[in-house]
Write the structure tokens for this entry.
Amino acid sequence: MKKIIIFYIIPALFLYSCIKPEVIPAPTPKVDLSAFFKGTINGTDVKWIQNVDDYECIPTKTKVTTQEKGKPSRASYFAEMKSETIKGSIRVGIGSVLWDYTLTDEPTKKLFNEFMLNNLTGKYSKDAAYGFEVQYTDKLGRTWYSDSLSKSGKIESFEFTGIKQESDIDFDYNKFIVTFNCYVYRTYTENNVTLKDSLPIDGAQFKGWFVR
């Protein structure tokens, strides 16, 4: 009887020793991202928070590239607080990062980071080509833009604070908080007459991020 027991135990031990332990890969590090916008738009207090009413920060960029010798390419970076289900959004942009497109398709991480740290304040610029731009979309879907040539007399100001530069396996980020005051404008045609409306944005604060 003892011999029979030993006969079954030995194969069982052999099979157990052949089972390889499961290797669980370490979690992929991800940058912690959070966003909100708050401010007074045309006298009304507005607050949009990430993951509330489907609002989220959506980073984008535009590039003007050239291979002409001696002429740099330009990149501008944007972040928009936007919802897929509710109208009403705000977008800010800053540019331009200059780089040699014949060497690399994108500005280097070093250029991207240094640009943000060197442009914490400055001037407003159309399409954020040479400075800062604000784009506001109202509940009716109409789009309003800041104007660097505004003669309204209002102080057009902005300041980036809380710059934090981080990277993960997917992207390089510049996390920021930007405060600003400005007028935004909308040009339209009515009865064959071109008209221009304006409205103020006061005490605005946008926490978000740009992606290289």
About this structure: Confidence is low (pLDDT under 50) at residues 1-9.
